[in-house]
Every structure is written in C-alpha cells, then in structure tokens.
Amino acid sequence: MNDGSHQMENGASWRSGPADRNFEMPKLDGTFATFSPGDTMPGGPLAPRYDDLYDGTGIKPVVIASAEETSGVGAMPASLVDREPPAAVLLGASDESLRVGTERAATIIGIESPTAPAGDPREQRIFVNLENVTGGLASAVLDVYVDINREGDAASSTEPVDQVVLFGLAKASQQDGAHGGNGLSASVDVTAMVRERSNELGVPAEKLSVRVQQPTEGAKPVSIDRISVYRQPVE
Amino acid sequence: MRLLSGRMKGRSLTPALSPKWWIIGLSALGLFVSAFTPRDMSLSSLCGQLDLGALIDPAVMALALAEPDVIVFGWLVMLLAMMPLLFSPVLAHSMRSSILRYRFIAGAAAACGYTIVWIAAATLLLPMAILLRAIFDDAWSAMAAGVAIALTWSASPWAQQIRNWCHRTRRLSARGAFVARDNFVWGFRSGELCVLACWPWMALPLLVEDGHTIAMALATAIAFIERSAPARFVRWRCPACFSVLLVWIRRTGSSPRYAEVMPIQKVRGSV
C-alpha cells in the first residue's frame, strides 16, 4: 500500500465479497454485525487509523511514506484498481484423489499449454491448487513439493515449494457445515520454481510432479479431491 | 509458511464462467412459451380434468391421456422454464473443472445427465399432481394442499439432509476420455438430489390452472433459494425459503452494520 508501483484490487466483487458469505463481528450484546471489505478501504466507515508507535519515544521513524499517506487521510501511494483481475485459466488437473499422511503422496499433472522456458517474468503466474481438502483434523499442515516431471526422472526437489496450513479443516469437512463437506482449498504460487527449473532443464513444463506430505509425525491422513494447475496473466 | 483457510483463498483463481445470461434466457423462453400455450395444451388443465372416479376407470384415463404429445410438450416447457436456474451451480462446477477445449463436452454431458433425471421425474410427479387434484373439488384447495406439502417437506430433516448433499461437489476430469463420463454422472447425481429436494415445488404449478406461468416462476425462485441455502444441521426447522428470507432481511435491513454500532474510536496518539 505504501509503494506507488503497487496496485490494490478494489473491484466491486472484492469490495462486497466474498460472494457466498459475510464477515461478521461480535457486538457487546452478543449478536453479530456484518461488514464488507469495502468498509475497510480509505473513506469507508471501518478504514483503519493506526497508532503512532513512535510518539513520545524520541525515536525518529523510518519514513517510507508520509503520515498522511499511511493514515488514510491523504491519498495512499498504491493505486486502487476497479477492474477485476484477469481470469485464471485451468491448465490441467490430477486424475485421482490423494490421501495424504506423513508419507508423501504424489501425482503427475499434464499441462495443456506448456510454459516457455524463458519468458517474461511478468507475463503470467502459475498456481497449484489443492482442491477440496477434507479430513478430521482441526488444522492440517501440508508441505507441497512441485517439480517439472520428465520421463525416467526421479523427482529432485527436496525442499517444499510452500507449506500451507488449513485451519478449521474438520469443521469445513462436515456435511452439515457452511462448506457443505467440501473442505478447504488452497493455492500455491509456483511461478518462480517452474521458471527456474524450466530454464535449468531447458525444456518447457509439460508435466508437473506434485507431492504433498504432512510434516507432523502421526498426523491423521487427509484427502485432497483434486490437484489442479492454473495460469493467471499478470496485467 | 502461509496461512490459508476457506474457499475465498481461491477466489481470484476461479474463472468467472457462469453463463448466467444463457440460464436466464432459457428460463425466460420457457416461461414465455408457457404463457402463450393454449389452455387445453397445458399440463395443469390435464390434471384438472380428472376426478377420483375417473382415476379408477381405465377407459376415462386412456381418453384423458390420449394425447401423449401434450404431456411431453407441457413437461418439457416446464423443465425449460424451471430447470436452468437449478442446473446453474451444477453447470458452473462442470465448466470450472474442465480445461477450455473440453468445456462444451463437460457442460453438455452434465446437462444430459441432469435432464434425463428430470424427464423421468414426470412419471412420478404427474400422477401425484393428478391424484391431488382429483381428491379436492376445486383448484384452490388442491393448491393449498400442495403448498402445505411443499412447506412440510421443506421443513423436514430429510429435505435438509438432501439439500446438504446438493452442496457436495465431486472430482471431475479436466480433460481426456473421462470428461464426458464424469460430467454425465455428476449431472445425473445432481439431478437426482435436485428432484428429491425440490419435488413438491416442481409439482405445485401442475395444480395451478389460472396463473400457471406465474406459479412456475415463483416455484423456481423458491426451489433455487432452497437449493442455494447453506448446508445446515439436520433437524426439523423453519422451511428453508423462509429462513433464507429472514436471514436476508436481518442482514440487509433491520440489522445494523458493524460501523454503525461500533464506531471506530480515535486512540490517543493516533495519526
């Protein structure tokens, strides 16, 4: 928000979202009041006003933006963009569900239009989506390993590309809960990894090998309905 | 480490594929055709022709049902008017789950599976409507009974269980030979659950002779609201259409928004 080169999404669907539920805050009388993300934007009734933590300490603050800019009183440096973000395009998905415990569960995903090995880093972002993760754990931690898959190659990545924490998994997996038993979904940005490995191997990413593992010893297994790969153009 | 929870995390990754104008257009076409269909070709008129005595007389029944094309036409028009809105979440999942060049196949396969179930449902819903209409002397009494049945069913734990199942999606192939199979099964299973959840609302317009088209539009809206209501604990409860309406009124009307009841207080030293 403090960087003038950044763009902050401010489209109608974001301001009034999420589409299928409301944000609620408890009131003093125990009932709930609703609010939308748009209420927290500058000029909105819930726009934050931050405390000045340097006031009275004698410490000179490091100024990256003026107080006017950060307080919401003045225009903030980042620009607000009303248009919707570019639509993400599905490139491929796993053919089977995965049951993930402390052992790595793996799948290979064929990609519809392979990404070029050397592309403009601003052109597109690649995401791996873990769709409809369900399980009996109150919260699950998943290490996600992604690599470009080539015939005869053993997957080489030893470090997870990301780790996701799914709070409220058990509740979201209940059929009579707000998620209708569909569990939780999470996305992992693998753009840098795909570009790096693609350049290293000198081949486009035609198939991605995705492995998922729970790092916690003895954790109950969780199910992942489908793992998909999306591409989203960057404006 | 990143913290992620809820479906909203994938919001920006979900393509906006809902072909809502097609859905609305098809439904409007069905309602338009229904509104201009001659009265003697409407299914509700057929249901009103028979009394209890006629139902046990095969000769009268055969005479009344002598024109199957009227029945087929009437039912298809009803499906065209009422089905697209209920089918929209099923279609959205199908198209979202397939890569671009398989989307037509996915949508068509899901539509086939879904429609087959609803066509088959006529074999149960039509006799039910004919029986209900024959029991009561006038159309208003039959309609009141139909509404009572629909509200009772809607409030029941069985209907809530089925509505909960309606929200569960299933894994669909993104491409390849299994796209058509997966989506057909998805459409078929969704159709089964929709019929089970919405059958009394679907049968209700068959009991309304005057204002058949308006009854179809209202029944569609109610069935869609019930179908879209979030999954809830299974027990007897206020009919879903009423509870959704109450929640909506509470959230948009009388209930104050957070900023109105808890104004942000300026903290000492804040800039």
Walk me through the structure.
The complex is a heterodimer of chains A (235) and B (271). Chain A has 235 residues and is mostly beta strands. Chain A is built from 4 helices and 13 strands. In chain A, strands 5, 6, 8, 11 and 13 form a 5-stranded antiparallel β-sheet that branches. Chain A has a 4-stranded antiparallel β-sheet with strand order 7-12-9-10. Chain A is globular and about 60 Å long. The mean pLDDT of chain A is 82. Chain B has 271 residues and is mainly alpha-helical. Chain B is 68% helix and 1% strand. Chain B has 12 helices and 1 strand; from the N terminus they run E-H-H-H-H-H-H-H-H-H-H-H-H. Chain B is globular, with a radius of gyration of 22 Å. The model of chain B is unreliable at 1-17 and 254-271 (pLDDT under 50). Chains A and B meet through strand 3, helix 2, strand 5, strand 8 and strand 10 of A and strand 1, helix 8 and helix 12 of B.
Helix tally of chain B equals 12
Indicate the percent of residues in helices of chain B: 55-70%
Strand content of chain A: 35-45%
Structural class of chain B: mainly alpha
Keywords:
heterodimer; A: 235 residues; mainly beta; 5-stranded antiparallel sheet; 4 helices; 10% helix; B: 271 residues; mainly alpha; 12 helices; 1% strand; disordered N terminus
SSE map:
The complex is a heterodimer of chains A (235) and B (271).
Chain A: E1 7-9, H1 12-15, E2 23-26, E3 32-35, H2 67-71, E4 79-81, E5 89-93, E6 98-100, E7 105-115, E8 124-134, E9 139-148, E10 162-167, H3 169-172, E11 184-189, H4 191-201, E12 205-213, E13 222-233
Parallel strand pairs in A: 1-4
Antiparallel strand pairs in A: 2-3, 5-13, 6-13, 7-12, 8-11, 8-13, 9-10, 9-12
Chain B: E1 2-4, H1 20-35, H2 43-48, H3 52-55, H4 58-64, H5 68-96, H6 103-135, H7 139-155, H8 157-166, H9 178-203, H10 212-228, H11 240-254, H12 258-261
Helix pairs in contact in B: 1-5, 1-10, 5-6, 5-9, 5-10, 6-7, 6-9, 7-9, 8-9, 9-10
